[in-house]
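Recall that a protein's primary structure is simply its ordered list of amino acids. Everything else, from secondary elements to tertiary packing, is in principle encoded there. The following example makes that idea concrete.
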Amino acid sequence: MNRRHQSCDPSLAGMRRIACETCLTRRGGALCDLPPDGLAEFRRAGLTSVYRPRQVVFSEGNPPLGIYLVCHGMVKLYHSERFGREHVLELARPGAVLGELVEDGAGEALSISAEAVEESQLCFLARDRIPALLERHPRLGWRLATALSRELGLARRKVRDLAFKGAESRLAGLLIEIAGEAGIGDADAPIPLLSSRRELAERIGVSTETAIRLLGRLARGGLIALERKAVRILDAEGLLTLARRGEA
């Protein structure tokens, strides 16, 4: 399904907009850690919007109009196959740069879609605004290249895992990744699953039924314990060994 970019209404009740001056992501962000005059120019060049959960940011197949900076919240990057099944590539968090840049956009199309997982604020920089901003603030060019290179690296590692690792190894790696994202250092602490079983399956490229079966296999093997909306890692070393299976 080819869903087009959807603009959002930041005035909707319950939504909040974070100013750059109070943004906790700013210092570690790829593009917004600027002096006051540069920050003002950055805001003039960009368009900040707040998205509801499950609201589409941009859709594959549409022209690449610019890039998005995640200010707060979480955004799902995914590809849809012709039968309607989604394959999740990444859950982008604050500081991430999304989108694809081309010189003129002619004949080009976005290769992935993006959708807000939770209430999220994003800043959009149109393609034609970026060159002038980078000319006046050259260090942003390096930061932008670094951020986009990181996204490319993540995509390539995802392709590598799909090609060389089995589904069980990919699930083990995902559970370790989720634990790291949640900042859980205690091996016996429960890992909250932000995703549903379906979305967990999409992140490792299998059906929901297969993901449920694999979770059960890991539990029977004593690597994890399943709770209602969480997973408890019982054998972190064993799970890590399984996650690395298939690596060169």
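The chain is about 35% helix and 20% strand. The helical segments are 36-45, 130-136, 139-164, 167-181, 197-204, 208-220, 236-243.
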